[in-house]
Amino acid sequence: MKQIPASIISNEKIAPNMHLVWADAPGIAFSGQPGQFITIYCEDLPLRRPFSIHQVSSNQVAILFKVVGKGTSWLSQRRRGDEIDILGPLGKGFGIMPSAKNLLLVAGGIGIAPLVFLMQRASSQHSITLIYGASTDVELYPFSSLRAEAPSNPSTSLLEGMRFISVTEDGTAGEKGMATNIIPRFVDWADQIFACGPVEMYQAMMKMPLQEERRKIKIEKSQVSLEVRMGCGIGACYGCTINTTEGLRQVCRDGPVFQLENILWQEVRI
């Protein structure tokens, strides 16, 4: 974990209220792992704001966010050359089992943010299916904003050979429905499932009407990235504590990635 001043390389509005920011942060780019996050000091606000590591390229790190409050509004107005105060990488990220070959990724809305970094790291050695859901077409992440090459394999486009399924609630793009409606099609194929989205998506995953034996195997191999309100982001304030089957855990220190079945979802409050 390092606290560094990072110079903004670019700040692009890529969808309504959605921004993609690249910053020069060599230390974090080198040591960050998929699923980990950083916090950024947003001027005049007492608490730093957490952001998933979205992409990494050379010495640069990207974050993807929606403008939802004062912190993200301030960040959305930064320009090339501005410096931001970054702390990270923080938390525990996704873990791919050595035996896993087929990975199912499930994203809901802005939950695509950490999964792109996971795709970067895993695409050269694993078969990946991405299910990506949003309310409507304009809220879908534009994959044209991806860096053209994955650092792990510079000769290969990140999306090459990957199965991609888009889902919108209103049917304006891809299939109509929810991302969780598609999961049963691939649950036998997947060795592991990685997901990021709203709590309601995770609750639906726990209730999927699959055969009990198959359901148990897949839920035990499912990892989810949990977004809750954080105070310090480093485990000192206990403001992001949740209840799990293993007792109280802090999202910022013990997560944000957890096994799906370990969280007591009925007690999670965002």
Description:
By secondary structure, the chain is an alpha/beta fold. It folds into three domains: 2-90, Elongation Factor Tu (Ef-tu), domain 3 (Beta Barrel), CATH 2.40.30; 102-224, Rossmann fold, CATH 3.40.50.80; 226-270, Dihydroorotate dehydrogenase, electron transfer subunit (Dihydroorotate dehydrogenase B (pyrk subunit), domain 3). Helices cover 18% and strands 34% of the residues. The protein is built from seven helices and 16 strands. The chain has helices spanning 26-31, 70-76, 112-122, 183-186, 199-206, 212-220, 251-254, and strands at residues 2-15, 18-24, 37-41, 49-52, 55-57, 60-66, 83-90, 102-108, 127-134, 163-168, 175-176, 192-196, 222-225, 241-244, 247-250, 257-259. The strands form three sheets. Strands 4-3-7-1-2-6-5 form a seven-stranded antiparallel beta sheet. Strands 11-10-9-8-12-13-16 form a seven-stranded mixed beta sheet. The chain is globular. The model is unreliable at 149-156 (pLDDT under 50).
